[in-house]
Amino acid sequence: MKVLMILVILVSFLQSCVGSFDYYMLSEIWPPGYCHNNPCRRHGPKFSKFIIHGLWPQNTTPCETSKLEEFPRDTLGKLEKDWPSITHKPNGLFWQNEWDKHGSCSMLPQIDYFKLTLDLYGRADIKEILRKEGIVSQIGDVKRYTKYQIENAIKSHPNIDAKPQLICYQGNLAEVRLCFDKSPGHKYKNCSTSYTCPLDNIKLPYLYPKLPVMEPEEAELLRAIPPL
Ligand SMILES: *[C@@H]1O[C@H](CO)[C@@H](O)[C@H](O)[C@H]1NC(C)=O
């Protein structure tokens, strides 16, 4: 009996050591805001949608990483579209970093982790959810929003019904983070509050900051962004 108890304790101790975590946080970038505090690629494509930053298991134990294997073609296509690197890092390096730092803590095989991230991202179109509540990004950046407005637009969406975490740089919305539990269905859960966004006067910028003197092709790209 005693031996059995010790065994049970030992097994649960070992389990808790190997890659356990509490819940998932999905971070989505609003590129024009995110670039206020990050070295965004000068000549890279400009995105006018929320793109994936990463899926981060929270409160993890140490994780063991591995080199990324090649993605199947269709997954690679989706990653390039929805999870591109907007900094100077090439996509492959960005994904490797996200896997090293976060993905490897998920206990999932690489491909499952990347697919889960794409799936959770695909569940809700944040830009559309905000637009329905009149929260839009426009040339001139004239409109300002309160933190409550943005949080509430997302929280009150029937598919989500949980509090997001917002990240701002100098009053510009940079990231929206959504939280999910570990159950197989990955239900939304409340994220912890964050204080990096001011209570009001939040901008959803349209233009990228500190654009250098524009090269013709850069100006072209910028014009190609449809009004939001
Ligand atoms: C989130 O927190 C609120 C209270 O602040 C609670 O009413 C709600 O049920 C929570 N939602 C989830 C999904 O746990």
UniProtKB/TrEMBL annotation:
Superkingdom of the organism of origin: Eukaryota
A Pfam family of this chain: Ribonuclease_T2
GO BP of this protein: RNA catabolic process
Family of the protein in this entry: Belongs to the RNase T2 family.
Annotated signal sequence range: 1-19
PANTHER family per UniProt: RIBONUCLEASE 3, RIBONUCLEASE T2
Keywords: Disulfide bond, Endonuclease, Hydrolase, Lyase, Nuclease, Signal
Catalytic residues as annotated in Swiss-Prot or TrEMBL: 53, 98, 102
Any GO molecular function: RNA binding
Organism whose genome encodes this protein: Pisum sativum
Taxonomic classification: Eukaryota, Viridiplantae, Streptophyta, Embryophyta, Tracheophyta
Protein name: Uncharacterized protein
InterPro entries cross-referenced by the UniProt entry: Ribonuclease_T2_eukaryotic (IPR033697), RNase_T2-like (IPR001568), RNase_T2-like_sf (IPR036430), RNase_T2_His_AS_1 (IPR018188)
Gene3D superfamilies: Ribonuclease T2-like
Gene Ontology CC annotations of this record: extracellular region
